[in-house]
Amino acid sequence: MKPDPKKQLSYDDIRHLREAEGWLELGDADSAGQELAAITPGDQTHPSVLQVRYALYAKRKEWDMANEMAEELASLLPDLAVSWINLAYATRRKSGGNIPKAKEILLAAEPLFPTECVIPFNLACYCSQLQEFEQAERWLKKAAAINDKAVRKMAVDDPDLKPLWDSRGGMTIWEKDDFLE
Question: pTM for the whole thing?
């Protein structure tokens, strides 16, 4: 039986969930895991719990488990862009995962979230890693057209874009006069 995303968690489970989030923010994955384990067994599959569990597995770089959580969340919450972003991210990193599989996920999700800049930004990163530089530039321009400030901030230090910058002699696309033309 599929969990009901609208079901309310008990006060105690909400407290454990918030404490798990707090421990993750502090970088203490073990304490976060203990708080998640204290949640009522029947509520372990609640989407809010799965989202924090995904974050825990991602923090620990346990990508196979993170991918399981992301798949479940994409099934339960398909209308949230972050469900697909997390699924692509974990798919890239899980055992047997790779960038083409992650790219495929985001290519399918991108038309559903036209105002979400992270999806085209991540597609630019994937294309850069795959040496598909023209596509990478197109996706980066699309992301910047949605939220230029956020995309510039993300792009500054993202190592996935290094092949794109290197292909341009170290020049970023913002250094071209015709970037958004």
Answer: 0.88
